[in-house]
Amino acid sequence: MRLTAVVFVFLFVMGFIDSNDTLSVVAQEIARPTDVIKTQQPVIVKLFGAGVGNLDSYGTGILVSPEGHVLTVWNHLISTGFLTAVTFDGRRFPVDVVGTSKDHDAALLKLKTEPGEVFPFVDLKKSIDPEVGTSIYAFSNMFRVAAGNEPVSVVHGVLAAKVPLEATQGRWVFPMTTPVWLIDAITNNSGATGGLVTDLQGVPIGLIGREIRHASSRTWVNYAVPLTTLSPVVESLRSGKSVPSEAKQASADVVMLSDQQLTSRFGLTMLPSVVERTPAFVDDVVRGSVAQKAGLQRSDLIVLVNDTVITSVTDFQQQLAAFRPGQRVSLTINRDQELKLMELRIP
Phi-psi region for residue 283, left (φ > 0), alpha (ψ -120 to 50) or beta? Predict the structure, then answer.
């Protein structure tokens, strides 16, 4: 049956069959994907920002409000800034970051628009948790196929399982403890992060995640975070409320450098961590220290350690603690709205 449908699509596109032909059963089955894909394309946003090292400079997001709120994954594109969103009709918008949830690996953006602008959007209240085995479509700007008003790519697959995910990206560990959808299809490609998963009727299901490997098998994982999980997160971020947290390990299990160790070993003083997610701004650099030799200056914002996104001063202290003396670490910093790459030797 699948082969028959493919042949019919080919003949129809090439003009050998017109819409009046009476292949009723096949026509009914293949008409619906066309309608669903056409309906979902306008809610997908292409994101373009600053790529660093082997990290992509592009990604995907989904419109989740008529005012232009965009849901995506919280990755290096969000942290490094310089972010532009391109809508389905090719218009380009600068964006503001409304809020992020590290525990859910999610970020909520807002297009900077003219007053009264209205956008097509995904109604997260209508998202569902279907049965395992459900066929799906995955919409994303993988491999940067679209840069303007071109349609994004669509992959057909199946929901294979819904399980907690233990996965990593370099030293970064996937933070969610609640189950995610594992997908039987190659959906998590370069640039696909933040794309939309729907069922064959176009009902929203999930947000395509990162390119990450399973913690044990080291195989690439194709997964999506359920939108039923992210819906209350989006509501909290929009309203300015605190986001419900995932269960965490005891803080005693987390190794990190103290403020004193940063200063004595690296010659580095960071902005005081007075709130949970104080940005990793450099407050002072000791003359002649390894930090100064690396090129760090006061007011630099550290955004990456190797390929790991730095979300706070505490995060930076934890990342540095994982390296051995003598190792060399790549730092990406934001200085005066310009990204700079430098190397730091661990003393």
Answer: alpha
Do 10 and 85 sit in the same domain of this protein? no
Identify the CA nearest to 284 among candidates 273, 272, 268. 268
pLDDT tens digits for range 94-107: 999 999 888 899 99
What b-and-e string marks burial along 209-222, b requiring 16 or more CB atoms within 10 Å of the CB?
bbbbebeeeeeebb
Question: Which range (168-172, 189-193, 302-306) has the least confidence?
Answer: 168-172
Domain that holds residue 57: 31-241
228 and 302 within one domain: no
Asked whether the predicted pLDDT for residue 78 surpasses 90, the reply is no
